[in-house]
Amino acid sequence: MTNSSIRVGPAPTPPTPPAAPGGPAISLAGSTASGALPLWIPLPFLLTGAVAAALFGALLPFIAPQALLSLAAPHTLALVHVVTLGWLTMTIMGASLQLAPVILESPLRATWLVRAQYPVYLAGVVLLVTGFWLAHPPLMIAGGSLVVIAIAHYVGMLGATIIRATKRPLSARYLAASATYLCVVVSLGLTAALNLQFGFLGPAVTRLLPTHIALGVVGWLTTTLMGVSYTLTRLFALAHDHSDALGRRNFALLNGGVLGLAAGFALGWGWLQWIGGLALIAAVWLFAWDYSRMLRVRKRKMLDTTQRHGIAAVGYLCVVIPAGVIVALWPSGPLGGAPALVALGLLALVGWLGQSVIGYLYKIVPFLVWQARYAPRVGRERVPLMRDLVDQRGAALSFWLINIALPATALCALLGWTLPMQLAAAALGIGLVVAAANILGVLAPHAPHAAPQLPRPVIGRVGATQS
After folding, report:
1. Three-state SS letters, 148-213
2. pLDDT (tens digit, 9 = 90+) per residue, 256-309?
3. For the chain, how big is the Rg over CA atoms in Å?
4. Is 384 helix (H, G, I), strand (E, B) or coil?
5. Helix, coil or strand: residue 20
6. Cα 417 to chain center, whole Å?
7. What DSSP state is assigned to residue 243?
8. Taking the model in full, what pTM does it have?
9. Which of 210, 171, 208, 217 shows the shortest CA–CA distance to 188?
10. 218 close to 321: Cβ distance less than 8 angstroms
């Protein structure tokens, strides 16, 4: 019975299988040589991200009506940063600390203060979100400063690892670019918080917000998820026959679009905004086509929960980026105004970014927990399979709740239907809470798998299986 095609832990070294035709295969855990991290480094980020997703889902029905009235309302800004910093950035930060050594086949560098990374970042996010919620600029500045410090350390680790790596595959290019955007994004955010207290930007503040959003949502978050998809989609779907050619073209097109759009916003140059926006639309459509090509050449034909979330997320991406460019560059058009921005924000943050993160967590968290808790016991006693750590019925329920309620919530927001929007948002929130509970439930004890198991799992590169 096939369960896992990723490396699951230390064991006697088996014969090394040949590399897949599309390039060298990798394992999610890495190895001693590649600097695999202990469980306590990435896991708190991933679990806290799941908690933040549940918090967002619980608060959304109550705060969404305020967002329709004012995007600058304190509670609206607090909820946006729960998503962007507490859920998405928190999760990506933890996952990339685990994945970067594997992708680059190099140990994580500059880790002297890695123990402080999580508590400093968490404290910064909590203070910043509290400051937004209470409309208290000193708290925003304190929280924003801690976030900047934590992210500077994170980017330092990631940058040192990329610079000193002997191999830099396609995903490494995306990670390097996205980390650069992240530095600019948090700096702009801290600048905005300082401006609330001291008002030194004057009229230029109107250009800061769209620049901040473009670099954050597209530059940092979207670039990161596109980049890791070129590794994780191949890894989980066994799609190693896929070529990097379109991915390299997409990298250039995507970053040209991000830089053009952000510079156009910052300088107030409409022609540059349109050039950047059109390049961005072309980039996401090219990525969607390349993503479909990865799935077509996959060896594992049955779609699992992670791939279903990925397909749905890429679908949202193909819609939300063109619509977002139109709304941003034609604010007086029929789709202008706060309702359209609320709808697009939900589709981008939950439909594309959040759903991608949820799908990957269904693989990464069970793997990390299984490797730490059960892999050392294989051969001495029967243990659960990796897929047994996730409640598949709960995963299916949350998938359908999210993907039925999210379009309904966005449509009601666009039409200004407050009560129906709250009801749809409540269903969406339940879907997010169920998904978060499922991810957190991986930590609970699980019964051994009923089927007979080999004395030891077959361990090696992607493509080996546990029967």
Report:
1. HHHHHHHHHHHHHHHHHCCCCCHHHHHHHHHHHHHHHHHHHHHHHHHHHHHCCCHHHHHHHHHHHH
2. 999 999 999 999 999 999 999 999 999 999 999 999 999 999 988 888 999 999
3. 22
4. coil
5. strand
6. 30
7. -
8. 0.87
9. 208
10. yes
